[in-house]
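Data follows
____________
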Amino acid sequence: MLSFTLSSERVRDTVITNAQGQVIYKTNTPFRLGVRTTTIQKIKPNDDMSMRHQFEVMGEIEWHTFASSKFRFGGTEVETKDFIPRRGWQDRKRVFTGPDGCSYRWDLQFRVVVLSRDDGSRTEVARFHRATLGIIGTKRKATLEVSPEVAHMMDTVVMTFIYVEKLRMDQEQARTPDNNAFGTQVGGPI
């Protein structure tokens, strides 16, 4: 598996580095009321000898609360309800067709998301590991592991990962009984 480290579990504002520590992708979502847009930048091959990192926009996710969110990439715009529709009990699965023509499925599990082939084999091809503090076991940063067999579609894996992990985080936050509608703590000892 190829291992990519995230600087933060907040996937809409993170830096993704490879095993050598080189920045491969960056995400940024400026704060604004209403519709927010995550911009995903990808490192661009360096044509000159300056050794500076240069990035290009790989895609965008336009987040909507009541309508379908949108992906923009490769000069196209597509609604997420069409590109990566819900499937399964409690909408905990999202299915899409990769650029290779194969069907893939993200499973939004309790604390992680897992990408597998959506066929009889159900071969796992990517998995997100959340950061751990090291209280029990080894301290670890948030990591996305990707199988070399889907490395040819890394941009699609990253874009769909950001989308489904944000959905999973929202579901996790909604399950937390101490949060009100604004996501702030309420109640507790007086």
About this structure: Confidence is low (pLDDT under 50) at residues 181-190. Helices lie at 80-83, 154-175. Residues 154-175 form the longest helix (22 residues). The two ends are 49 Å apart (CA to CA).
